[in-house]
Each structure stands twice: as structure tokens, then as C-alpha cells.
Amino acid sequence: SVYDGEKRTIIYSGSLKQNGLTTSLLNLLSELDEDEVKKCCITFRSDSIEESSIDPEKLRRLVDILPIRGKSQFTLSYLICYYLYFKRNSTGKFVKKRIDRLYKREWQRIFGCIPTECAVHFTGYEYGMINLFRSFEGRNVIYVPNNMPEEIKLRHNQHQLTRQNAYREFTTVALVTEDM
After folding, report:
1. Which distant-in-sequence residues (6+ apart) come within 8 Å of 109 by Cβ?
2. At what angle do helices 148-155 and 160-169 cross, to 10 degrees?
3. Hey, which end of the chain has fewer CB within 10 Å, N or C?
4. pTM of the entire structure?
């Protein structure tokens, strides 16, 4: 159980769709010994699970899972700063401080009672989850599965400021392919 007091590695898996990212994560977990797997906890947004996703209950047989439920709660000042940061790319100290505080509070809401030694953002996508895992005050790792600057140009599926801050502030930035 994630609440047994033993320190955990919390791994954000994304939507668990049957794709290369999920296959890679499952292969990685299968290479760990049983004691290491017991220290891992897979997390995902519960509203992202679809019919095409791997059944979380099947995953539970391998590793502890912790679905993320609920929405962030904003005061008016946090909402304004959220808009300025994500929609207007504001980099002011006040805005950055509020965004950092917002995600630290979210980390406490979601994972606060779980002793954690490492936080791993396995997908490298989703600016909200990147900021959440960036806010963990300990060892954190982000995987970079693709050429993200190129993805921003082609797909517009990343937030530039979030990506820059993540690569600067995560303890480890793990490049998945050698050509990056």
C-alpha cells in the first residue's frame, strides 16, 4: 500500500493508452526487481482513462496505482496568474511565484500523505502535470520522448515556458533517444 510509510517513487504515466510510452513504462517496470517495483506508485489523471487505455486494475497487480481525482482550486489572484503564465507567457516574479505556490499546494492535495523519495514524469507531456512534478521538493525526473521544440512548432501541444522551466529545474532530464 502507498500508505505503509515506506518512501515511494511516484511515476506519472499519462493516460495509459496502448502506445509506445505505456509499453516503454511497463517494460521498464518489468526490468526492476520485486522490491524496487513495490516502492513504485503509478499515477494518472482518472479522467484521462479511455476504452483504449490499459485497465488500471490489471496494472494494480504489478504496482500500486494512485489515480489523480478532482480539479485545482483557484482564488481570483491565482486564476489571473494562471491565465497570465499559460496564455500570455508572463514571466514576472509575482506570476511565477503564484504558479509555483499553486502547484506545490496541488502536490500536497494529491500526494501529501505519501512519503516520496522521487517523482518521475514519464511522458514529458501535459503542462499541468509537468508543473506538478516540477513542484516536488526532492529528486524529480522528466523524460523527454521527442524533439520537443519541433513538436511545439508542428503540433502546438507544449507550453514553452513550462518546458524551459522543467528542463532547468528538474533534478534529471532523461533524453529517450540518442538523436536529441
Report:
1. 70
2. 170
3. N
4. 0.91
The residue count of the chain comes to: 180
Q: Which three cell numbers stand for residue 14?
A: 499519462
Cell readout for 63 is 504496482
Q: Residue 14: how many CB atoms within 10 A of its CB?
A: 21
Assess contact for 169 and 45: CB atoms under 8 A: no
Q: What is the DSSP string of 18-64?
A: SSHHHHHHHHHHHHS-HHHHHTEEEEEEGGG--TTBPPHHHHHTTSE
Q: Which CA distances in Å does 14 have to 5, 35, 91, 137?
A: 25, 24, 27, 21
Say how far apart CA 27 and CA 42 lie, in whole Å: 14
Q: Which three cell numbers stand for residue 121?
A: 514524469
Query: 110-138 as b/e, with b when 16 or more CB fall inside 10 Å?
Result: bbeebebebbbbbbbbbbebbbbbbbbee
Place of cell 500508505: 3
pLDDT tens column, 37-88: 989 999 999 888 887 778 887 888 889 999 999 998 899 999 999 999 999 9
Q: Please, which residues bridge with residue 140 across strands?
A: 119
Chain segment 137-146, per-residue pLDDT in tens: 999 999 988 7
d(CA 156, CA 148): 10
